[in-house]
Every structure is written in structure tokens, then in C-alpha cells.
UniProtKB/TrEMBL annotation:
<comment type="similarity">
    <text>Belongs to the DAMOX/DASOX family.</text>
</comment>
<protein>
    <recommendedName>
        <fullName>D-aspartate oxidase</fullName>
        <ecNumber>1.4.3.1</ecNumber>
    </recommendedName>
</protein>
<keyword id="KW-0560">Oxidoreductase</keyword>
<dbReference type="Pfam" id="PF01266">
    <property type="entry name" value="DAO"/>
</dbReference>
<dbReference type="InterPro" id="IPR023209">
    <property type="entry name" value="DAO"/>
</dbReference>
<feature type="domain" description="FAD dependent oxidoreductase">
    <location>
        <begin position="5"/>
        <end position="322"/>
    </location>
</feature>
<keyword id="KW-0274">FAD</keyword>
<dbReference type="InterPro" id="IPR006181">
    <property type="entry name" value="D-amino_acid_oxidase_CS"/>
</dbReference>
<feature type="signal peptide">
    <location>
        <begin position="1"/>
        <end position="19"/>
    </location>
</feature>
<keyword id="KW-0285">Flavoprotein</keyword>
<dbReference type="InterPro" id="IPR006076">
    <property type="entry name" value="FAD-dep_OxRdtase"/>
</dbReference>
<keyword id="KW-0732">Signal</keyword>
<comment type="function">
    <text>Selectively catalyzes the oxidative deamination of acidic amino acids. Suppresses the level of D-aspartate in the brain, an amino acid that can act as an agonist for glutamate receptors. Protects the organism from the toxicity of D-amino acids. May also function in the intestine.</text>
</comment>
<keyword id="KW-0576">Peroxisome</keyword>
Length: 341
């Protein structure tokens, strides 16, 4: 059988990680990533990239936990290798703090991160406005380095990238056997998915190298996430807001909320403002669909809608998408064998 040709639409975190996973797990296929935006101009480049799960109301918790565990263990392996610095993957310890004691003191992901425990009284003294806290060590991917590293790995595995806007998936029909849809918010138009919508996030990237611990308010609205080169201060969650322009008043609010948690941030320098639109739906869409046009068929594997938690689950969802593709490749090979008999 001739090589199975696979096109992955999307070059954000989800498209690149899925393309790498396919190129490493399905021998003998060709993989091409097609997108109209590449790093540093994707939503994924704006993210803090910390591994703290977002909860997807439409996905069973055991499934979300499996995706998180697979992603955490995969990145921990990279973190413990000589690739860590180029990939921008590092461990980070810190605190998640709450103004009222949460109903669920031990979240479902507590045994995946390292050293999860309740904060001590002495630790809580740093946060007099808060009543309860959790301390743990997790991982963080710095972007753009992580996206650049994924793209490099894809090319080393023989994969290709093309800059192109896709208006209709059928444009790819004559050149590819299988399409993998990782277009994030682009799926609203491309697949006419009216469920996917933006949740706007504005963040500040600042220079404050003395800060080594993360601090996250349990509401998820205010956070301080130290990376290798800068610190991400957040944030906002504005549903259905498509505006990509930074708002100066929002920036002031973010800085003031973060300084209330960590007063030394008043001395932060080199403040850059970034805005990204989280591709949000109640559940990640991870499924196979066969598009039909007359007598023609176009198999599409969807992997999009990761909302606020793409970094936390990307390797788990990339593996599941690859599994769906493997099934389809096996069926193609079987029908090709039968045709030869
Ligand atoms: C402010 C902010 C902070 C965040 N922090 C975190 C965090 O700390 N931890 C975490 O886990 N998650 C975080 N996230 C969420 C995370 O960034 C997203 O879940 C993730 O980036 C989604 O990746 P994606 O590849 O699906 O989308 P994108 O990065 O948007 O990529 C979509 C790709 O599809 C392409 N595309 C779309 N339509 C078309 C088309 N018609 N033709 C061709 N190409 C097309 C685009 O060009 C792009 O390449 C954050 C998000 C924001 C905004």
C-alpha cells in the first residue's frame, strides 16, 4: 500500500503535539501540519502553560484524569532529560489559595502532581485574606520554546509544515487520506460548530526573577506563574469576547490583584501585555467523523476545544486522537489488501 497521507489542520499546541504523536506512533505515514498561524502568533503562545487541570463539564472525570496523568508523566520525562531546557519544560512549586474553604479539599488530580498537601498555618500567614490553601509541585511549559521544540521534532520525524488558510476541509480531499482537525476556535467556521466560543484571557508577562513559586487564587482569576525567562500574571475570563486588543485598565487591575498576593511584584520590570482567546466548549471534541459529498468520503478526526486547559491534557488527547487515526489506517490497509486479492 502507498503511504497514508495525513493533514493536521492547526499549528498551536494541539496540532503540533498531535502531529508529533502520529509521526512517532504510525510508521509509514506522511504527516503535514497546515495552518494560517504559527508560533509566536497562536493562542498557545499567550498561555502560561502550567499543568493545573481545567474541569470540562461534558467529559467524564476519569477520562480527564487519564489525559492529565499521561501529559504530566510525559512532560516529567522531558523535564528529567537533557531536552528540558530546549523544550522549556520545568518543575515549579507553589500554592493554590482560597478565601473560603472549598467543598472538595482534595481535587481529582491531587495524586498526579507531586507532593500535594494542605498548606501549613505558617505558610497561610503569607496570605492573610485567605482561609485555606494547597501546596504542590507541578510542571510548566514555556511558550514559544515548547512549540518550537515540537515543530523541530516533527521535522526530525519526516513531517512537514505549510502556511495556508483552509476555508473548507474538502480543499484537502485530493491530496490527503485523513484530516486531523486541531483548529481550535477556527472550528466555529470550519466545522460550523456553534458550541465552540472564545473565553478571552489577558495576561502580563513581566521580568521578576526573584519569584520562584507560583501563587494561584482558587477562583482561577488571579495567578502568578514563574517561567524560565518571565513571569505570567493573570488574568481575565471574558466569555464570548473576541477582542484581541489589550485593555490598559484590565492590565492595571491584574497588576494590582497580583501585587496584593505578592507585594514584591511592584518592582517587576519590562511588562508586556498579551491577549488570547481560549477555544471553549463543554467537552474537548475528540471523535471521528466521515464527511460525505455525493459518492466521496473524507475522514476527519477532531481534536479541539481545550479551553483553559490545553497544556494540562495535550499529550493525553494527542494519544487518543492518534489511536482513532490508527484504527482508520488499519481499515484502509485492510481494504487495500482485499482489493489486491
Ligand atoms: C491567557 C491564557 C492563559 C492560559 N494558560 C493556560 C495554562 O496555564 N495551562 C493550560 O493548560 N492552558 C492554558 N491556556 C489554554 C491553552 O492556551 C489552550 O487550551 C491551547 O493553547 C489551545 O491550543 P490549540 O492548539 O487548540 O489552539 P491555538 O493555539 O489557537 O491553535 C489553533 C491553530 O489552528 C489554526 N487554524 C484555525 N483555523 C484555521 C483555518 N481555517 N485554516 C488554517 N489554520 C487554522 C491556527 O492558525 C492555529 O495554528 C491558556 C489560554 C489563555 C488564552
Amino acid at each position: 500500500m502507498t503511504k497514508v497521507k495525513i493533514a493536521v489542520v492547526g499549528a498551536g499546541l494541539i496540532g503540533l503535539s498531535t502531529a508529533v504523536c502520529i509521526s512517532e506512533s504510525i510508521p509509514g505515514c506522511s504527516v503535514t501540519v497546515i495552518a494560517d498561524r504559527f508560533t509566536p502568533n497562536t493562542t498557545s503562545d499567550v498561555a502560561a502553560g502550567i499543568l493545573i487541570p481545567h474541569v470540562y463539564p461534558g467529559t467524564p472525570v476519569h477520562q480527564q484524569k487519564q489525559w492529565f496523568r499521561e501529559t504530566f508523566d510525559y512532560l516529567l520525562g522531558i523535564c528529567n532529560s537533557s531536552q528540558a531546557s530546549e523544550a522549556g519544560v520545568h518543575l515549579v512549586s507553589g500554592w493554590q489559595i482560597f478565601k473560603t474553604v472549598p467543598e472538595e479539599k482534595t481535587p481529582f488530580w491531587s495524586d498526579v502532581v507531586l507532593g500535594f498537601r494542605s498548606m501549613t498555618e505558617k505558610e497561610m500567614k503569607k496570605f492573610p485574606q485567605h482561609k485555606f490553601g494547597q501546596a504542590f509541585t507541578t510542571l510548566k511549559c514555556d511558550c514559544p520554546p515548547y512549540l518550537l521544540w515540537l515543530e523541530k521534532r516533527l521535522k526530525e520525524n519526516g513531517g512537514h509544515v505549510h502556511a495556508r488558510k483552509i476555508e473548507d476541509m474538502w480543499e484537502l480531499h485530493s491530496d490527503y487520506d485523513i484530516i486531523v482537525n486541531c483548529s481550535g476556535l477556527g472550528s466555529r467556521k470550519l466545522m460550523n460548530d456553534q458550541e465552540i466560543h472564545p473565553i478571552r484571557g489577558q495576561v502580563l508577562k513581566v521580568h521578576a526573577p526573584w519569584i520562584r513559586h507560583f501563587i494561584r487564587d482558587g477562583s482561577g482569576l488571579t495567578y502568578i506563574y514563574p517561567g524560565v525567562h518571565d513571569i505570567t500574571l493573570g488574568g481575565t475570563r471574558q466569555k464570548d469576547n473576541w477582542n484581541l486588543s489589550p485593555d490598559p485598565n484590565t492590565s492595571k487591575g491584574i497588576l494590582s490583584r497580583c501585587c496584593a498576593l505578592e507585594p514584591s511584584l511592584h518592582a517587576a520590570r519590562d511588562v508586556k501585555v498579551k491577549v488570547g482567546l481560549r477555544p471553549t466548549r463543554s467537552a474537548v471534541r475528540l471523535q471521528k467523523e466521515v464527511l460525505v459529498r455525493g459518492s466521496e468520503k473524507l475522514p476527519v478526526i477532531h481534536n479541539y476545544g481545550h479551553s483553559s486547559g490545553g497544556f494540562s491534557v495535550h499529550q493525553g488527547t494527542a494519544r487518543e486522537a492518534t489511536w482513532l487515526i490508527k484504527e482508520y489506517v488499519a481499515a484502509l490497509e485492510m481494504s487495500s489488501c482485499k482489493a489486491k486479492l
